[in-house]
Design goal:
By secondary structure, the chain is α+β, with helices and mostly antiparallel strands. The chain has a domain of 149 residues: Umud Fragment, subunit A (Ribbon), CATH 2.10.109.10. The protein has three helices and seven strands. It has a seven-stranded antiparallel β-sheet. A hairpin with a 2-residue loop joins strand 4 and strand 5. Helix 1 runs antiparallel to helix 3. Its EC number is 3.4.21.89. This is Signal peptidase I. It comes from Ruminococcus hominis. One of its GO terms (molecular function) is signal peptidase activity.
Length: 251
């Protein structure tokens, strides 16, 4: 029973730690998708949530795409890239297909277009320094989950709540350990007291036996002295009787 309980405790701890680690990973990746100035990466990949249907049907709004850092010199027309640009007068990240590559004096520039933009290219031409990475794949609708995780409610549910539950569980575990320890100490003290009580009784009994033995010895000594006194008296009487008998014989 104790073994099963111990295994259950370990399993719960592992699950809670896994939730916290996954939550931390989600938090990192969602922050990466929201940061337009510097893009974070996990093992060289950046997960991003698609915010529009400009690339439909390749991927759609709410999908989670994966961008990998790349060598821009190896990019070619038709590749899908993520890059820094201006959208609605705001600095943002965009993911579109390379429509055309121009090179002047070894400097490349890229014209991009969305697959669902009816053949209308993007307004801003980008350079190598604007490119974050190359699109390598996506997971449908997972971006909605990432968007939720990047929200205040998602952070509360995925980060704060698991950590709170883990903290509560650890406090409960410490309390139970403390209770079991106190119980074990109480049992041990009770056993020691019982043992001490038994030893005390043995000592008292031994003292009592010693007193009785001493009393018996004194009684035996007294009886011996009385017997010797009686014997001495008898010998004296016998000697007197013998003397009287000798005296009467002489007369």
């Amino acid at each position: 029973m104790k073994t099963l309980k111990r295994i259950g405790t370990i399993v719960i701890s592992v699950i809670l730690w896994a939730i916290i680690l996954l939550a931390a990973l989600y938090a990192f990746t969602t922050m990466a998708t929201k940061d337009d100035q510097s893009v974070s990466r996990i093992l060289g990949y950046t997960p991003m949530t698609v915010e529009s249907d400009s690339m439909k049907p390749t991927f759609c709004k709410g999908d989670l795409i994966f961008i990998k850092k790349c060598d821009t010199s190896k990019l070619k027309e038709g590749d899908i890239i993520t890059f820094h640009t201006i959208i609605d007068n705001q600095y943002a990240l965009n993911t579109h297909r390379i429509q055309k590559i121009d090179e002047v004096n070894g400097v490349r520039s890229y014209t991009t277009i969305g697959d669902n933009n009816n053949g209308v290219a993007d307004q801003h031409v980008i350079s190598d320094g604007d490119i974050v990475g190359k699109y390598v794949g996506h997971i449908s609708n997972l971006g909605k989950v990432m968007s939720f995780l990047s929200s205040s409610m998602g952070f509360l549910i995925v980060i704060v709540l698991p950590m709170l539950l883990f903290f509560i569980y650890q406090v409960y575990n410490l309390i139970m350990i403390s209770i079991r320890l106190k119980k074990a100490i109480a049992v041990e003290n009770a056993e020691e007291l019982a043992k001490a009580g038994l030893n005390k009784a043995d000592v008292e009994q031994a003292a009592k036996d010693k007193d009785e033995a001493q009393a018996a010895l004194e009684e035996a000594k007294r009886l011996r002295e009385e017997a010797e006194a009686i014997r001495a008296k008898a010998e004296k009487e016998l000697e007197k009787a013998k003397q009287d008998e000798d005296k009467n014989g002489e007369e």
